[in-house]
Amino acid sequence: MANKGPSYGMSREVQSKIEKKYYEELEERLVEWIIVQCGPDVGRPDSGRLGFQVWLKNGVILSKLVNTLYPDSSKPVKVPENPPSMVFKQMEQVAQFLKAAEDYGDTKTDMFQTVDLFEGKDMAAVQRTLMALGSLAVTKNDGHYHGDPNWFMKRAQEHKREFTESQLQEGKHVIGLQMGSNRGASQAGMTGYGRPRQIIS
What domain range includes position 21? Predict the structure, then answer.
């Protein structure tokens, strides 16, 4: 990967807007969750966007994180013994995390692109993906989530209702008060739009 020089004009403006979406407080919460979820052996990053990016960049910690959300028998991502040093291997590791997170239930709109993390282009998107993953884990409540449940918001869940045939029939006989009644109403004497009314004497 070639080194990138500073951006100017419109590019700089766009990058500045993206960087403003990154929250330092959210970074602290996500770091705490990852450490509680994966164990203290993952270490702790330097504070700030760059430290957070460097910590997650090779994909190993992300892979460990998503593996902890699955049962022991079905870990989706193979975590290498030694962190990969080659660029394409690191990007491949991040891509495996993204695939496992999507299989877990993260939507495509919540996912970051590999370059967002690897080149630090959009670390706010990385935060969004991790927040969505945490919310899903809290919502599923299957015993694999560790940490404070208040760190993430529960997602809305479907509450399907079943009605019997007799209940459905009863509902047809109820007229809401706001609806009024159309009993006895008909279109007798009405004409189509735009046609003059015929007056015969």
Answer: 11-151
**In a domain? residue 38:** yes
Residue 28 CB contacts under 8 Å (≥ 6 apart), including other chains: 47
Taking only the tens place, the pLDDT of each residue in 32-91 is: 988 988 888 888 888 888 888 888 888 888 889 898 888 877 888 888 888 888 888 889
Is residue 71 a contact partner of residue 102, using CB atoms and an 8 Å limit?
no
Q: How many domains does the chain have?
A: 1
Alpha helix stretches (DSSP H) within 21-59: 24-38, 49-56
| Cα(30)–Cα(38) distance, integer angstroms | 12
**What pTM was computed for the model?**
0.67
For 102-140, the pLDDT digits (tens) are 988 888 888 888 888 888 888 888 888 998 898 888 888
Residue partners of 56: CB distance under 8 A and separation at least 6: 45, 62, 117, 126
Structural contact between residues 62 and 97, judged by C-beta atoms closer than 8 angstroms: yes
If 0-12 CB within 10 Å is exposed, 13-18 middle and 19+ buried, where does residue 99 land? middle
24: CATH: 1.10.418.10
Cα–Cα distance measured from residue 196 to residue 194, given in angstroms and rounded to the nearest whole number: 7
Please list, in sequence order, all residues whose beta carbon lies within 8 angstroms of the beta carbon of residue 19, skipping any fewer than 6 positions away. 49, 123, 124
111 closest CA partner among 87, 131, 138, 139: 131
